[in-house]
Amino acid sequence: MVFTNIHLDIFQEMINIGVGRAANLLNSLSGKHVSLSVPSIKLFDYKNLINELESISKSDNLSCVLLIFSGEISGSSCLIFPTEQASKLVLAFTGIQTDDLDFDEIQAETLSEIGNIVLNSLVGSIANNFGISLNYSIPLYVTGNLNQVLSSEISSNQNGLILYARTHFKIESLDIEGDFLFLCKLESVPFIIQ
Predict the structure, then answer these.
(1) First CA to last CA across the chain, in angstroms?
(2) What's residue 1's pLDDT?
(3) Which superfamily does 5-193 belong to?
(4) How confident is the model at residue 128 (pLDDT cuts 50, 70, 90)?
């Protein structure tokens, strides 16, 4: 069984539905106008994903929120931001400045909550469209370079299916970019294609 452009278009539509839900939730939580967009998605194997992320990420300092899921399909999803962009996102939601003594802790909590909303909306949209139920872990917040944020659960899916989407957050006058990854374990791929 082969993953085709038609499958990719269907995933794009599912993700667009999830993005709309996530934006509505973030709007109501923040009281600010939040728009999210995912212009396109791509399919990668692990090695090509690393090459793509290295080519676009000019930062060795990244912030990542990871959500592991299991059920009829299993894998993980994550949002990755350069830490500078992550700090802008936290500032937009909280108004707290980076020189605040507790900023690192506040950033971890805020990004975990934002990531939880976005990732649950995106993965939930996929699950709803498949008509399946999934179990989710508590979101995990990780910082470091690309290898560090992609370690453990993400790199363990090296033989699976990896959907990559560049995500744009627009919050009032801020334009913040992050990366959304949806990684399915190899044994889930036939179910997804079917």
Answers:
(1) 8
(2) 58
(3) CheC-like (3.40.1550.10)
(4) very high
Query: Do you know the residue count of the chain?
Result: 194
Per-residue pLDDT band for 75 (boundaries 50, 70, 90) equals: confident
Long-range contacts of 6-14 (CB under 8 A, 24+ apart): 7/192, 7/193, 8/41, 8/42, 8/43, 11/41, 11/126, 11/163, 12/38, 12/40, 12/41, 14/125, 14/126, 14/129
Q: For residue 141, give both structure tokens.
A: 């917040």
The first and second tokens of residue 7, run together, are 């499958």
Asked whether the beta carbons of 12 and 40 are under 8 A apart, the reply is yes
In the chain, where the domains are located:
5-193
- Residue 4: CB atoms within 10 A of its CB come to 11
- The pair of structure tokens assigned to 2 is 């082969």
In this model, does residue 135 exceed pLDDT 90? yes
